[in-house]
Specification:
Number of strands: 7
Structural class: alpha+beta
Oligomer: single chain
Radius of gyration: 24 Å
Order of helices and strands: HEEEEEEE
Helix content: 10-25%
Distance between the termini: 85 Å
């Protein structure tokens, strides 16, 4: 008869991690459904944030910007109430959502602009130009 070595601590730790991942599954899926997908990139002069928010009216979106981040929130609404007896499947999410996007560099929030077209929100935020370092190099004679 062959015995298989068993590391109790390692195996129980592995089972704990797997169970934790399994129990966390609904919150990960819900977070993915509730948060708009975004692209954040920078040009030489600006930070650009583009968010996919299809089916949401511009009036149902709210943006808040500060020196460090952009907060995007809003509400998706049903076009009409459905009689549950006639519904075969509902996969679209309806309700409130919110996402905070940190900026990768220093920005000028007072000069930001936003545009919403065809379900894509585009926010352009100018970057702070780096100032000259105080002082100068001093040569030794």
């Amino acid at each position: 008869m062959h015995l298989i070595p068993w590391n109790t601590v390692r195996d129980f730790d592995h089972m704990r991690r797997e169970l934790s991942n399994w129990l966390d599954w609904p919150s990960r899926v819900q977070g993915a459904l509730l948060s708009p997908r975004v692209d954040v990139y920078q040009t030489e002069s600006d930070v650009i944030v583009k968010a996919e928010i299809p089916g949401v009216a511009k009036e149902d979106l709210e943006l808040y910007i500060d020196d460090n981040s952009l907060r995007l929130s809003g509400t998706t609404k049903r076009e009409q109430e459905l009689n549950e007896e006639n519904v075969y499947r509902t996969e679209r999410y309806y309700g409130s959502f919110s996402r905070t996007i940190p900026f990768p560099v220093a920005v000028k929030p007072d000069e930001a602009t936003a545009e919403y077209r065809d379900g894509i929100l585009s926010v352009t935020v100018p970057k702070v130009k780096p100032s000259k370092p105080p002082g100068r190099r001093l040569d030794i004679k």
